[in-house]
Hints:
9 helices, about 270 residues, mainly alpha
Amino acid sequence: xxxxxxxRSNSFPSRPxxxxxxxxxxxxxxxxxxAASTSSSSCICQRLNGLQDLHVSIYxxxxxxxxxxxxAQEKNKKSIEQILDxxxxxxxxxxxxxxxxxxxxxxxxxxxxxxxxKRGDLTSEVRKYLASRKSLRKSLEKVMKGLKATENQSSNDxxxxxxxxxxxxxxxxxxxxxxxxxxxxSGKWSLVSRLMKQRRVSSCEGEDIEANEFEQVDNAFxxxxxxxxxxxxxxxxxxxxxxxxxxxEEGLETLFRSMIRIRASVLNM
Length: 269
């Protein structure tokens, strides 16, 4: 989803407070990395870390007296209400993403358990996993359609401008994350061609890495069900996906706590 950012080269005065300058620096670096990077797991984890740094710096900015005085002005009441509404939506989306990861991880754990015991109906468990993923994909698609920045936001207040931009970049990052989890592009090629052709993308640092781990496992499990052969998927791929999920869960949990702190600070004003 394309998100329009209000790029503000003069978001702060010529001699801004060091904390305000730090926030602006985080915003600039995040937008630059977002434009240059791809939707690989390593890049998405880096974006979550970048968002975490941004939100921590915004929280510190909100603790400054001049920021609190500015936001407490009556003329900013409507904008503050919009920001609070937006923050609540972002917290909900963050929880949805965490639930999606947990649901996928639970399904993988059941399959791994059957593989370790070497008994049980593996095909049935894989079918159950694929059905869960299909349902999950539909749910996430609805969430992604509802993701959008609050309209008509173009505040002249520096603190408000920062909060508005933070919402926009967070929405963009969540949209990319949900597409990654749901393998939103998996329907563009045939299953066989995707498995025969090992798609590779450039990571944030420029090296080659394998494509979406969620998509790889989904495709391999589908082939397993069709062929009923364990050789259709590698245990290493399942383990790789589990590690990716763990990294994403940790990043989301840390970011969630930071967003809660910011929302509480704004509410206290």
